[in-house]
Every structure is written in C-alpha cells, then in structure tokens.
C-alpha cells in the first residue's frame, strides 16, 4: 500500500493586474519547495517567468513539469510531478466569455483542460487533468447565466470520462451546482473532500470563517483572505458558508480496474484547505484563493485495512469507488438543456442588437465622411478624427461580436444541445 500526495492552487498570476504578484509567487515557490507533494497543479500561472521560478524551486522533488500553452495569453495551467511524464495534451474550451467583456478577460486567455500522463511505479500509466473554468456567472440566479461554464463542464466531463484518474483545478462552481453535478455523474469522478470528510449539513446560523474553511472546504471569498472581493452583501452562498468551495481534487480508479478486478484501487484518506495563512512577514495572502491538498491511498488487491478510519475490518463502502462512469439523470440533462436553450435565444437577440449598431455605425461613418468637407474650424479636426476612429472601432467590434462571435457561440451551444438531447433520448430508450 502506498500513497499519492496531491495539491491544487490558483496562483492569481495576472501580469500588471494581480496585486503583489512578485511577492506572492516567490512565497508560493518557497512554500512548495518545502512540501512533500507528489503532484502539484496550478492555475492562473500566466507569466512564464513565474512558472520558471516555481519550477526551479521544486525541481529537486518534482523534476517533471508541463506548462500548457493555449489562446492569446496562455492557458495559465501547469503541472509538476514526481513521476516521468510520458504524454501531454490540451483541450481548449469552445466557449469562454465574450470579447466585449474586457474586465472579465476570460475570452482573451486559453482556458482549457490540460492533461499529462505519468508513469507511476505501482499504478502504471496515470492521466492527470488540470483545468480552470469560466468565471463569470456567479452562483445565484438562473442557470443560463452560467451557460459557458456548463459547456466547460460538459467538455471536461467528456474528455475525462474515459481517461482521467485525477482531475484538479478551479472549477468556479460550488459543490451543489449543476456544473459539478455534470462532472460527478457523467465523468464518474469522486470528490476527495467529500470522500474524506463526514457530511455536515449546511449551517442554520452564522459560522466563523475558520469553520467555513475546516468544515466546508471554503477556498474563495473567505474573510480570512486579504484579497477577498465580496463584502457582507455577497451572495447567499458566501454569507452562509463564509466563502465558497470552488477548488477541487477529483479522482477515479485507474483505468486498468475495468480489465482486472484484482488491480490496485484508490481512495482519499484526508483532504484539507491549504495556504490559509498570510505570507510570513506580510499581511498578504498567497492568492485570492486558498489551495487544496489530498492524500490518496493506493489499496492493494484484497486489502483488509480500512484506510480511512484505521480499523482492521474492511469497510470499503465508506470510500465508494467510481470504477466506471455513470450517466446524468434525465432531470439533470433537462436542466442543462433548458439553460443552454435560453442562452441560445439570448445570443440571438444580442447578435441582432449588435448588428443593428453595426448598420447604424456604417451610416454614421458615411455621414462623417461627407460632413468632413464642411468642418468650419481647424481645431475641430482632431476631435472629428478621434470621434471617427471611435465609431470605426465600435462598428468593427459590433460586426465581430454580432456576426463572427455570435455564430461561433451559437454553433457551440447547438453542438452541446444536440449531444445532450441524444443522451437524454438514449437514457429514455435504455429505461424503456
């Protein structure tokens, strides 16, 4: 019997935007250099120099590394591992925000599902996925607000369904969300926190921020974090749990189990939130998120030890296996379909408005061209030119948003809608 120590952490490493980035990255690198993890997965590591700094610090223990490249500014994903990497891959998500959402910035980066396959001395080939889902949409309100994240979840579940043994990252979704329901049910991945912690019902009154972290696995928007965004008027979830659990370590049994009933199995012995303290000598947190670590236990065939409780009697049911992927329920599929169909109609309406603005902009530009011959004062010329440039930019942007991006978005939504509709019909036939 052996173990695998795993950690995932969103580093909040946006160049020029993230506060105290140099100080925080140096502290993150130092902390990981003193750790005993076998696998580390990082998100929002946008600057290659930051990745190199962390790599150089952990290379003695974790010599095999991968930084994933995708999109205009990179995927922001990295994996560091103790065992040799024998294959890598990346699956960019088809939907990831809108070009006009500059402050959100998701469209300008290449959010994706990155994977590495490592050769483990006991388990053999083990595939590890790291990801970071679309951020915008929150947790409250109708599901169509999270349509792009639902598409991320479906695409992540598809690529991990048959392959992944580990899925790590910032899913930007709380455990009870439709997004996580898709991943758990369709990909068949178990949540290390749920496996290793007894169920605690949601609090009925105010709890402490420390309880939110220790009992409910809060990793974001905690009052304990110096970069907390939401105040007392935050979402219902934040007020109830003193933050949100958005970061996960998911696992499934090695793929060899389906062929060999006597193969080794995995369970999670313990999991906890990490990087909750301030950087030594500073009042700053390590990131705007906390991290998560988990200790996964490799159980030998016919082992009689209950690795979770430490008892000798076998209690395998306390650590349920996810040997094979399951299927989403008809109700879950219907809920996703409803959200995506609403998003599709919203996209159509938005495109019509944007193309209307494009047509009006063309008419205005023609008027400006004609009117430029009668500009009465020379000092008006610079203002006239700047206004013309702005209208030209707006018109071009509306054409791109309304026609090119709008069609791209609806094609992606339609593709997922057709796939989910097929699965719903298949599920109905299987039950009949």
From TrEMBL:
GO terms for molecular function: endonuclease activity; exonuclease activity; metal ion binding; sphingomyelin phosphodiesterase activity. Its main location: membrane. Pathway: Sphingolipid metabolism; Lipid metabolism; sphingolipid metabolism. It is found in: Membrane. One of its GO terms (cellular component) is membrane. Pfam families: Exo_endo_phos (PF03372). It is a multi-pass membrane protein. GO terms for biological process: sphingolipid metabolic process. It comes from the Eukaryota. The chain crosses the membrane at residues 355-377, 383-405. Keywords: Endonuclease, Exonuclease, Hydrolase, Lipid metabolism, Magnesium, Membrane, Metal-binding, Nuclease, Sphingolipid metabolism, Transmembrane, Transmembrane helix. Residues 7-253 form the Endonuclease/exonuclease/phosphatase domain. Belongs to the neutral sphingomyelinase family. This is Endonuclease/exonuclease/phosphatase. It comes from Boletus reticuloceps.
């Amino acid at each position: 019997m052996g173990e695998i120590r795993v950690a995932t952490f969103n580093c909040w490493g946006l160049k020029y935007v993230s506060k105290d980035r140099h100080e925080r990255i140096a502290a993150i690198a130092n902390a990981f250099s003193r750790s005993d993890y076998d696998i580390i997965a990082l998100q929002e590591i946008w600057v290659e120099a930051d990745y190199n700094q962390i790599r150089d610090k952990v290379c003695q223990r974790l010599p095999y590394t991968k930084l994933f490249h995708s999109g205009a500014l990179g995927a922001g994903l990295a994996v560091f591992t103790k065992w040799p990497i024998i294959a890598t891959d990346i699956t960019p998500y088809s939907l990831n925000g809108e070009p006009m959402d500059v402050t959100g910035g998701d469209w300008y980066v290449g959010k994706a599902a990155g994977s590495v396959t490592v050769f483990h001395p006991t388990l053999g080939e083990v595939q590890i996925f790291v990801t970071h889902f679309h951020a915008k949409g929150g947790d409250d309100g109708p599901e169509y607000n999270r349509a792009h994240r639902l598409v991320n979840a479906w695409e992540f579940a598809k690529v991990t369904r048959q392959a992944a043994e580990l899925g790590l990252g910032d899913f930007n979704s709380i455990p009870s969300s439709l997004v996580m329901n898709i991943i758990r049910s369709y990909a068949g991945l178990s949540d290390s926190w749920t496996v290793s912690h007894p169920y605690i019902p949601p609090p009925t009154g105010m709890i402490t921020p420390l309880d939110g972290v220790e009992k409910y696995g809060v990793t974001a928007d905690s009052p304990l974090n110096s970069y907390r965004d939401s105040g007392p008027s935050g979402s219902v979830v934040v007020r109830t749990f003193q933050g949100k659990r958005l970061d996960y370590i998911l696992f499934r049994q090695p793929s060899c189990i389906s062929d060999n009933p006597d193969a080794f199995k995995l369970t999670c012995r313990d999991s906890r939130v990490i990087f909750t303290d301030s950087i030594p000598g500073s009042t700053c947190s390590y990131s705007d998120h906390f991290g998560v670590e988990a200790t996964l236990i490799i159980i030998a065939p016919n082992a009689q030890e209950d690795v979770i409780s430490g008892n000798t009697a076998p209690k395998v049911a306390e650590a349920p296996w996810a040997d094979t992927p399951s299927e989403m329920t008809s109700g879950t599929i219907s809920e996703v379909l409803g959200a995506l169909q609403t998003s599709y109609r919203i996209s159509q309406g938005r495109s019509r408005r944007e193309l209307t603005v494009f047509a009006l902009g063309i008419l205005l530009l023609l008027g400006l061209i004609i009117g430029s011959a009668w500009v009465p004062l020379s000092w008006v010329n610079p203002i006239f030119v700047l206004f013309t440039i702005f209208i030209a930019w707006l018109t071009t942007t509306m054409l791109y948003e309304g026609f090119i991006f709008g069609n791209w978005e609806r094609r992606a939504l339609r593709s997922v809608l057709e796939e989910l509709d097929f699965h719903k019909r298949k599920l109905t036939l299987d039950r009949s």
